[in-house]
Amino acid sequence: MASTIKDVARLAGVGVGTASRVISGKGPVAPETAARVQQAIQTLGFRPSSIARALSRKSLDMLGVYVPQYQGLFHGAVLETIGRELRDVDRHMVTASGGACGDARLQALDGIDFLRQRECDGLLLMSHALHDDDLRQLHAQMPQIAVLNRIVPGLESVCFSSDHALGGRLAAQCLLEAGHREVAIISGPHHAPDNEARLHGFLDTLGAAGVRVPSEHIITGDFTPASGRAAAEALLARCGPAPLPFSALFCANDPMAIAAISVLAAAGLRVPEDLSVIGYDDCEFAAHVWPALTTVRIDIGAVATQATRDLINRCYGRDRPVIRDVAPELVRRQSVRRVDAA
Amino acid sequence: MASTIKDVARLAGVGVGTASRVISGKGPVAPETAARVQQAIQTLGFRPSSIARALSRKSLDMLGVYVPQYQGLFHGAVLETIGRELRDVDRHMVTASGGACGDARLQALDGIDFLRQRECDGLLLMSHALHDDDLRQLHAQMPQIAVLNRIVPGLESVCFSSDHALGGRLAAQCLLEAGHREVAIISGPHHAPDNEARLHGFLDTLGAAGVRVPSEHIITGDFTPASGRAAAEALLARCGPAPLPFSALFCANDPMAIAAISVLAAAGLRVPEDLSVIGYDDCEFAAHVWPALTTVRIDIGAVATQATRDLINRCYGRDRPVIRDVAPELVRRQSVRRVDAA
DNA sequence: TTGAAAGCGCTAACAA
DNA sequence: TTGTTAGCGCTTTCAA
C-alpha cells in the first residue's frame, strides 16, 4: 500500500496540515519543519494522490482534447502543440478520439461526453463531423471550450482556424498565375466546414477569372491517401487517359495529393510536366516527396497554440498572449509549373 | 454548481447508499425505487464525479500510455489501437509524450512519472530512449507495465514486439534474391533497440551470403523524413553521383525511404531502374507513393493490441486472448527490382 | 431492500 | 508557525 500524507505527518511528527503545506509549497512552514517533512517523504517514497487533491480542490488542472483520430499527420501536430502549451503552465490534457459507434458525429459527441465525465476544466475540440448546433449547445452548457479549425457562427470568440477560404484563394491564384484554366479537384468530405471553405475560396477565385470547373472534374475523398488514390483513379477513368482535359489538379490536402501523383505517375503522366498538382496543409511529407509538393501551408500547430492559450486564460485566469490570425501561406515547390512552359 | 449524489438522494427521497446502488447498477434495488432515482438524476442532470468515485474505489479505471511523440505515422497507430482495446473493456487511457527537458530519456522518465502521479492502473510504454535498466527498475516498483516494440532482457514477459531481427533478415533476403550485392543503408538512431535488431538481422543475412556493407555506406537518420533526406544527400555526396557504388538501399523506416527516393529522383536517379530501395514498417504512405514502396510490414497496431490486452488481463483480472507473435512480413511492391534486369 | 455512517487522501479554514 | 477538523462526492460495510 502506498503511503499517505498521514504517514508522512506521523513520521515527521507534524500535523497533516503542515505536511500538506510543505508538499504543496503554499503556506508558512518553518524551514526546519519543512526539512523534517521532506525527509519523511523521502524515506516513505510518498507520492501525493492527485485524485484526493483534485477532489478537495475541485480541479484536476487538466483540459480535455477531442480529435477524431490519432493517426495522420494533422492531428498529431495538434496534440503535440497542445501538450507543450499546457506543460508550460503546469497543466495537462486528457484526450479522446473516435468513440464506440460508427457515425463520426456520434463518436465526437461520445468522446466529448467522456471528457466531460473526466471533469476537465475546459475542452479543446477538433471535429468537422459535429454540427454547428452541437457546438452551440455544448457551449451553452459549458462555456470553457475552444473549437479548432472551423468557425461556428455565433461562437466566433471561441473558434480558432486559419482562413481556409483564403487558403483556397491562394491555391487558385497560384494556378491562375501559372496560366492554368482547366482544372480538376480532389475534394475533402463535403460536410467538413474547412474543406468547404477552401473549396469555395478556390472556386470563387477561379470563377472571377472566368474559369469554371465542371462537376465531373471534382471528386470527393476523405483526406486519406487511400481516398486520394481512389479519387485520382476515378478521375482518370472518367476523363480517359492522355491527353487530360485539365492541366492542373487541386487536392484538398497533401496526403491525397501525394497519392494522386502516384497514380498519375503509374499512368505515365509526369508531374508537373504533364499536369500540375497543388496540395493543401503542407504536411511533413510535402517537401520530401518527388516532385516536392507546391501547397498551401496551414500552420495547424500555431492555430492549436492560440486556441490552447486562450482556453488557458479563460480557465485559469492567466493572461498568455493570443494571436487570432494564423494566415495560410502559399509554398511554391515543384509540382506546379506554367502551363505554356509545358 | 453541479449536483451531487446527495441531491439526487434527497430529491428521490432515498439514502445516498441507495442512490449509489442504482447509479452503479450493483446491489439490490427495488425497481420502483430505482425508477424514482433515475427520475431525480434526469431532472437534476446529475453526472457522477469520477474523481470521487476513484478516490473511494481506488482506481480510475485507466491505463497510462507513454509515447515519445504524437506526430508521425507510427505512434498514431499505436494510440488508436490502444484506445480501441480499452474502450472494449470500458476503461480508458491517459497519454503522455515528450517532457520538459531536451534529452529523450529524461523526457520519457518524466512522462512516466507524470503517468504514475495520475494514478494509472498500469502503464504501456513505448520508448527507445530508455535504458533496459530504467525499465527493469520501473518494473520492480510497478509490475503492471507493458513495453512496446522492444524486448528488454529479464522483462520478456511484459515486452511486446515484432521480431525486428527477422524483419531485417526479410529485407536482406529480398535484396539478395533480387541479386543485389552492393548495398547502402539509412539506419535509425543507434540507441534504438528495434533499429539495432533490424540492422543486425539485415547485416547478418547479408554477411552469410558473403556481402559486406562498408561503413561509409551506412548513414544514420532519426526516422523522420527530413533526416532521410539529409542521409540520402550525405550518401550521394559521399559516393559521388552516378554510377553509384551500390545497387540497393535499405532504409530503417518508410518515411526515410520516401524522402531518400525524392533526393535520388532529384539527382536524376530512377527507382528502381537505377537503384532499388526497400523500406520498413509499411506506413500508410508506402503503397501510395511512386514507386510504391517495397517494405517490411510491421503491424504495430497488432503489437499494441496484444500488449494492451495482456495488461488489461493483469490489471483487471480479465482473460482476453493474447497472441505473442506478430511476425514481420515482406511486402513486395515496386521499389525493388532484380539487379540483372536493370 | 434500505439507510446510516465510516472511510478514501487531500486541502483549507480556524484556533491555538 | 502549527495542529485539528470539517469537508470534497462517492462506495461500501453493517444494521435494520
Automatic annotation (TrEMBL), chains A, B:
<dbReference type="InterPro" id="IPR000843">
    <property type="entry name" value="HTH_LacI"/>
</dbReference>
<dbReference type="GO" id="GO:0000976">
    <property type="term" value="F:transcription cis-regulatory region binding"/>
</dbReference>
<dbReference type="GO" id="GO:0003700">
    <property type="term" value="F:DNA-binding transcription factor activity"/>
</dbReference>
<dbReference type="InterPro" id="IPR010982">
    <property type="entry name" value="Lambda_DNA-bd_dom_sf"/>
</dbReference>
<dbReference type="InterPro" id="IPR046335">
    <property type="entry name" value="LacI/GalR-like_sensor"/>
</dbReference>
<dbReference type="InterPro" id="IPR028082">
    <property type="entry name" value="Peripla_BP_I"/>
</dbReference>
<keyword id="KW-0238">DNA-binding</keyword>
<dbReference type="Pfam" id="PF13377">
    <property type="entry name" value="Peripla_BP_3"/>
</dbReference>
<dbReference type="Pfam" id="PF00356">
    <property type="entry name" value="LacI"/>
</dbReference>
<feature type="domain" description="HTH lacI-type">
    <location>
        <begin position="3"/>
        <end position="57"/>
    </location>
</feature>
<protein>
    <submittedName>
        <fullName>LacI family DNA-binding transcriptional regulator</fullName>
    </submittedName>
</protein>
<keyword id="KW-0804">Transcription</keyword>
<keyword id="KW-0805">Transcription regulation</keyword>
